[in-house]
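Lecture 7, part B: from sequences to assemblies.

Below are the input chains for today's worked example.
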Amino acid sequence: MSAALFLSPTLAVFGVFVLFPVFFSFYLSFHKWNMFSAGATWVGLDNYRAIIANPEFWSVLKNTAVYTLGTVPLNMALSLVIAFLLNKRLAGKKLLRTMFFTPVIMSSVAAAVIWRWVYEPNFGLLNTVLGFFGVPAVNWLNEPTAAMFALIVMGVWKTFGVNMVLFSAGLQGIPETYYEAARIDGAGAWHRFWSITIPLLSPTTFFVLVMSVIGSFQVFDTVYVLTSGGPLGTTKVLVFYLYEHAFKFFDMGYASAVAYLMFAIVFVLTMLQAKYLKRSIHYA
Amino acid sequence: MTARAFRRGTGTVLLHAAMYALAAVTVAPFLWTVLTSFKEIGDILTYPPNWWPKTFVLDNYVAAFQAAPFGRYYANSLFVALTVTAGQIVTCSMAAYAFARLQFRGRDVLFYILLGTMMIPGQVTMIPGFLILHWFGWIDHYAGLIVPGLASAFGTFLLRQFFLTIPRDLEDAAAIDGCGKMGVLWKIILPLSRPALATLAVFTFMGVFNDFLWALIVVSSDEMRTVQLGLAIFRDRYQTDWGQLMAASSVATLPIVIVFFFAQRYFIQGITLSGLKE
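Predicted structure of the full complex, as structure tokens:
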């Protein structure tokens, strides 16, 4: 009885705002409803069919994939290298870690506003620095390819600190004795990195990869503030598309179907990563 | 000095140079923002730009606070973030106690269902969540911003794991002294769980204070806006008023930087914990 008492606040909130919504949005995805009309009309698979027939959905999906393929590898490489070097003997390690972590704690809205100023074509920080090297000014946020690139760079900057912390924890879990043994056997630094660090870090790497892919598939805030999906829809991503359909066009059924498709895509991607990468994970 | 020691010395210097350069690049956009916010307008739009303001002025801050009620946005954000944080500490510690200490049927199944909900992307529950708020009449109300955040699977999990590490002997002694279950949780377990509670508090506060999408959906009137919403609207309205935009961004980031400065350890612990496998 007392268990029920202790659990009731959590279960009540979860029931109303998580469990019920999971089923309700599934139900909605088979209905047409603008939320102002009296009831939802059953339309079967029409929403899903309409989404798949909509070329915009495919371009949005492509943009999301490009963003993911752009941010995840860059993010992981950078955070691994920094975590690895932070694990060495360094003066002011704490200060360095705090500096690398600053972008993570900022709100994505503030970060995106700041980066609009960095990308400003005439007086912005980036073009100024590039100008020193003789690179002509780029209108970062108004040219399709440049805008996606700008979004990716900012995305990496904003989130690599999280992965750096995860990699750091993983690195600290590798016993020093392995390195000592390898050193005695005459293995160089490069060899030790590939034969000890990389394999023994693989559980962390796997987790970081899965979480980063999920995170970049759900990007929204920075897109909303940095580019608003432009220019010409080239940075419009899945969640932005969903947001538009739900809260601008009030097409709740269609938007719910988008949400479920997105859930399915992320789920399949996670399963694929688990299937093909689980084998290469080594536990210490 | 032997050649080897010399090589090692050079390596150390290079390593430090590279790391500090990278760290400087990382914080450069933020520093530039703060410095820009104190510049006069003519000082902002110059080419090539100068890092340091010619004269430090507060004009941008004054103008931003006059153009939009940032004080009000701030109060909203702080109120919502503090309420959700306090609420989560209560609800998560109660649920975590039940999962860690009480015997009841279906306990483990329920716990795994709760954990499983962490895998559901927020977008799936967002639309019905909005409709529920609409039915409750909570759109554009504090309740809409607060109540959905009053439980957390992550927080319950984090506290449960911590509670499990606390020896039971203390509780048994307290129970013999006539302490009820609520009393045990309140007087014995929670005081021993300060690090875990701090991690949860810091994590929740930052998450709620920085939240954007949910607030964007729930809030419709100007006086209900949070700092992040206010800033996003401000950026729409004053596209190129860089001084004011940088002032507003600096202000929106400040409390988080302060919290982080004092509670960095807990925040990093939270991230590491969320990365624990199985």
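Note for the exam: The radius of gyration of chain A is 23 Å. Keep this in mind when comparing with the next example.
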